[in-house]
Amino acid sequence: MTMVIEGPAIRVQGLAKSYGELAVLRGVDFEVERGSIFALLGSNGAGKTTIVRILATLLKPDAGTAGVNGFDVGTQPSQVRESISLTGQFAAVDDILSGRENLALIARLRHLADPGAVADHLLRRFSLTDAGARKVSTYSGGMRRRLDIAMSLIGDPPVIFLDEPTTGLDPEARIEVWETVKGLAGRGTTVLLTTQHLEEAEQLAGRIAILHQGRIIVNGTLAELKQLLPPAKVEYVEKQPTLEDVFFAVIGTTGTTSATSATGATGKDGE
């Protein structure tokens, strides 16, 4: 089991990354407390996936420092990898294998004792026992994503990165994943969630950071972010700003944007 280190689960200071002339990250700073859900909220191309790749030791920053579970991503990459799991935008499951076989395979790769018992435990935990013997090709989108997250938890990593985990899912499957993510934090796992769905950040995260043009422009709880905008008063009825109002106000978007276009986009960051 991975040793738990004191201090924030994730610490990022002055992170910068460019691709040629394109500056994707321009000095990013934030911390994530242990056992919390922290959402990086931003549009496509804002730099969310680049941050996750750096924290997962898959990409080196041009400047700044980052630490995960007390280990520096640049000088202690092996310890960082032992502390984390990464779930990307699309489920990394084998359609030919059954759900149980997928889980047991990862348990064997992590050199855990009794991979079958590990698989059975996670099938129960993620309400997949009845489907455990079925090929994953028969699973719904929500079931595939739950299985993907279950595979990420093998070995009990203290920190998990979820990079736009509900991309391409229908509303029912998205809610299934939300409940799964809430359960992770409830068991003490630290979750860094990237998303472009405003409702997703609002539903899940204890703290929300809005990433825009390579910088964190606001960072706080939902209540703190709403205080950035004064409540609108209409016929003596006080209207509290929504996270959508805050998001477009702080990134400086002008004009009207429907809730559907603001929250319904899918796809990868364009870094």
Overview of the molecule:
With 271 residues, the protein is an alpha/beta fold. The chain has a single domain, classed as Rossmann fold. It is 34% helix and 25% strand. It has helices at 48-55, 77-83, 99-109, 115-125, 141-152, 171-186, 198-204, 222-226, 243-251, 259-263, and strands spanning 10-19, 22-32, 37-41, 63-68, 71-72, 84-87, 159-163, 190-195, 207-212, 215-220, 232-234, 237-239. The strands form 3 sheets. Strands 6-7-8-3-9-10 form a 6-stranded mixed β-sheet, sandwiched between helices. It has a 4-stranded antiparallel β-sheet with strand order 2-1-4-5, with helices on one face. Strand 9 (207-212) and strand 10 (215-220) form a beta hairpin. Helix 3 (99-109) crosses helix 4. The longest helix is centred in the middle third of the chain and has 16 residues, at 171-186. It is globular. The two termini are 34 Å apart. The model is unreliable at 255-268 (pLDDT under 50).
Task: Give the gist of this structure.
The chain is of the alpha/beta class. It has a single domain, classed as Rossmann fold (3-Layer(aba) Sandwich), CATH 3.40.50.300. The chain has helices at residues 48-55, 77-83, 99-109, 115-125, 141-152, 171-186, 198-204, 222-226, 243-251, 259-263; strands at residues 10-19, 22-32, 37-41, 63-68, 71-72, 84-87, 159-163, 190-195, 207-212, 215-220, 232-234, 237-239.
